[in-house]
């Protein structure tokens, strides 16, 4: 708990002076003011996050947190739990979609076992296993409060190491069969939305399975009675280890004034947990895409963020976050590489 407290204590607001400087520079460039829209907003935000007018994101690292879920025994997914392990090996062998997209944007991929049910042996794997999967949240708490804290602190440790080694843009992704169930449960607790508005088809369940999934979440909320004003209680009772890990990555990066890409439903649930622990964290998050999961846009509304992309994606792994890295780098290129009106006039006069 000490690491979590220390991390939260380091979190500060954005540098408003640098943001004003960024706005002034953008308005002085060879374009109509505001004509590059959200790219300009990102450039301003990056200046506030990093306290650097000419921020760079040339060392991108994407973190995939992997953990299993006891609730899969309730039939909330069409995919067996063993696929979590299989996909982790696929990530490590660079055969997954997130690997292909990360290679395209020049991002390293870090795979973290924070709660996979089986043991995975690989020198490439970062092992921060809190426990081999959560308990079945339909029958009781998914984990203890101490385990919830441990999952968050594991994420803080992972991102601290990455930043110490030069990372200046962090992506967040996950792997864990059944993890849309706890994510939807977290959103339901934090809003007055119905289960019809917060629960989706996940990896492709049918209508009957969707009905069952909603019933399981309703049962979990009744059994556990999570306290809506207590992030750790919510995470412990109906969350996931990878959700806690991602929340820790967000908090740790924020404490180090490093921007973080938010991905889909699971990453959004982690952001809600992190926001409840420290509201300032959302200022350091950069939204990537809108998932087809119905609750995802509601998460953005709670976070006060607006996604850049709408690609009808629902794969997970942080694929949307990696795609968004391209746009973040584009924002830095604008403020770093474009000429101001004054500079362009001088060069034009020289040429004349």
From TrEMBL:
One of its GO terms (molecular function) is nicotinate-nucleotide-dimethylbenzimidazole phosphoribosyltransferase activity. It catalyses: 5,6-dimethylbenzimidazole + nicotinate beta-D-ribonucleotide = alpha-ribazole 5'-phosphate + nicotinate + H(+). Coiled coil: none annotated. Belongs to the CobT family. This is Nicotinate-nucleotide--dimethylbenzimidazole phosphoribosyltransferase. The keyword Transferase applies. Pathway: Nucleoside biosynthesis; alpha-ribazole biosynthesis; alpha-ribazole from 5,6-dimethylbenzimidazole: step 1/2. Catalyzes the synthesis of alpha-ribazole-5'-phosphate from nicotinate mononucleotide (NAMN) and 5,6-dimethylbenzimidazole (DMB). The active site is at residue 317. NCBIfam families: cobT_DBIPRT, PRK00105.1. It is an enzyme of class 2 (transferase). Its EC number is 2.4.2.21. Keywords: Cobalamin biosynthesis, Glycosyltransferase, Transferase. HAMAP family: CobT. Pfam families: DBI_PRT. InterPro entries: Nict_dMeBzImd_PRibTrfase (IPR003200), Nict_dMeBzImd_PRibTrfase_bact (IPR017846), Nict_dMeBzImd_PRibTrfase_N (IPR023195), Nict_dMeBzImd_PRibTrfase_sf (IPR036087).
